Fold this protein.
Amino acid sequence: MSQEAKRYEDVYETFLNLPENIVGEILNGELYTQPRPAPKHALATSYLVDDLVGPYGKGRGGPGGWWILYEPEIHLSDDILVPDVAGWRKERMPRLPETAFFSLSPDWVCEVLSPNTARKDRIKKMPLYAKYGVSYIWLIDPILKTLETHFASVTGAERFIPMESYHS
């Protein structure tokens, strides 16, 4: 086993043994951990999921046809990402997996920014989402009360292009 493979195995073993109150992600071979979200972060995420599941998940007053999930664990190659909210079109993923994680990249993700996660979400995770084919990403800042929407670059540059910014 190569030294790099052994290092990843050690990182993955640490990831598997994290306490339940800690969210872990492996991004570009590095383990990142943080406590469960603070109340404003959790409230923003809860409201978002509540607003999206009816029209997009269940087709109530909207198109339906999406799986909208809170904090799904997504395994893509050697990276493990846990977005705050993610959505898959049911035409791409007709059924939820039997595993405790997803191995298919979502069509859309939303990260709710906090002072402790904003830099990681923007600098580490956004390029990975683009690399793995996520089409859209929203960034919500509950403190500044902003929503940024981005779509994946079609140039293959593994980056997102800003669409709109909203402030309440």
